[in-house]
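Q: For a teaching handout, I want to show students what a protein-ligand complex looks like in token form. Below are the inputs, and the small molecule is flavin-adenine dinucleotide. Please produce the holo structure.
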Amino acid sequence: MKIKTDIVIVGTGIAGMFCALNFSKNKNILMITKTSADESDSFLAQGGICVLRNDEDYESFFEDTMRAGHYKNNKSSVEIMLRNSPEVIKDLIDYDVEFENKDGELIYTKEAAHSKPRILYHKDITGREISSKLLKQVIKRDNIKIIENMTLLNIIKHDNTCTGIVASGKNGQTSIIESDYVILATGGLGGLYEHSTNYGHLTGDAIAIAIKNNIELENINYIQFHPTSFYSKESGRKFLISESVRGEGAVLYNKNMERFVDELLPRDIVTKAIQKQMKIDKTEFVWLSMKHMGSEKIKKRFPNIFNYCLEHGYDAAEDLIPVTPAQHFLIGGIKVNLNSKTSMNHLYAIGETSCTGVHGANRLASNSLLECLVFGKRAAKNIEKNYRNLADIKRNVNLGDYNNLENLKSTYKNIIFNEIERINSDYGSNNN
Ligand SMILES: Cc1cc2nc3c(=O)[nH]c(=O)nc-3n(C[C@H](O)[C@H](O)[C@H](O)COP(=O)(O)OP(=O)(O)OC[C@H]3O[C@@H](n4cnc5c(N)ncnc54)[C@H](O)[C@@H]3O)c2cc1C
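A: Here is the structure, written as tokens, with flavin-adenine dinucleotide included.
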């Protein structure tokens, strides 16, 4: 099957959807997604989204982001993200996204490593609130079409210009999608790990494709582990107990019911402290206590977490919750410039699969959704500004290369882990 469109966006998470909505209505946009449009990590985000509240908070927000990132962040990217944050939050509110407020005044919360409350949230389902409202807008737009259950297999290129993609549909049929621009918004790679908070279908496909096509990457060995996922022997995605729970005063205990770390330190430090404690205690988890908040507050502020724990045998108002670190976030990714362009012409990358440098060596809590929005919008604006039609370029694709999809899947997994191993052995691990 051959499809022609102006722009292809791979991925229907917050980055992909917000980017699509920022194109003018005269551009035909095709979005594809590996499963259904509402199955992305964006829907899972709990804690919230950061915003620069006022000029007085700039220095402090900038410093918190840099300190969490071990000062390896790209300062220009951080500045762009912070300065553009009020505008994208306003865009969301215009799309009917509801954040916690009192009589119309927004309420801000605080998470680990933030020195001030600057996080907007919607109960403990902020990602679902934002993503579902964006999806509604996308569906309304005549110029945007979503194809579900379609998997990106490769990009099509002509010299160093991207001219479309090869993808596989639900029935296994391979499609050639010709376009003027391709935007990769495929999220993280947690699906490659045994313990991860990510959806299992997020397997870093765009990263493997980038390596295969000599597209520049940055810091893909920087993998963030979240300190507190709900401990379970069940296989599959691990349920996250958001940082904002600790931001609201929850504490961690070892097996002797002693606190062993300052719970508000950055993620990588708390993760290491938990891993160390589990070794000392010879256990597979530590305990998280939310009990002091009381039943009413827990149910009101963290209904999703409360219900999940209850369904799994723990009443968060009465019981300690077993938690353990799990793979959570890809900090590095496909290297992009300040407008989200990759090292290949006509190819952009946004959201978790990209590396804008805003997170440095470790992401500050609630900066990821913000990065998706700010740099997703910039990609759309930059493409519009420099738009060049590729209609006269001939695309050559050998469909025989895509006959064995299982084989391709395991090849892509090996490509990624080999590259991570190569970087770690050349430069040392980031130890996140
Ligand atoms: C449990 C959890 C809680 C979180 N909480 C927060 C939070 O409170 N605040 C915050 O800022 N961040 C949070 N994060 C991180 C944040 O949610 C993600 O980094 C962000 O949503 C990533 O958005 P994205 O659009 O880049 O990718 P995603 O939302 O993951 O979307 C990726 C899309 O790409 C598609 N895709 C992948 N591969 C292919 C392929 N080969 N072909 C076609 N489609 C493909 C997927 O189907 C999906 O549609 C959390 C993450 C998790 C897992």
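A: Two things your students might notice: The chain has a mean pLDDT of 96. The chain has two domains: 2-222+331-427, 226-327.
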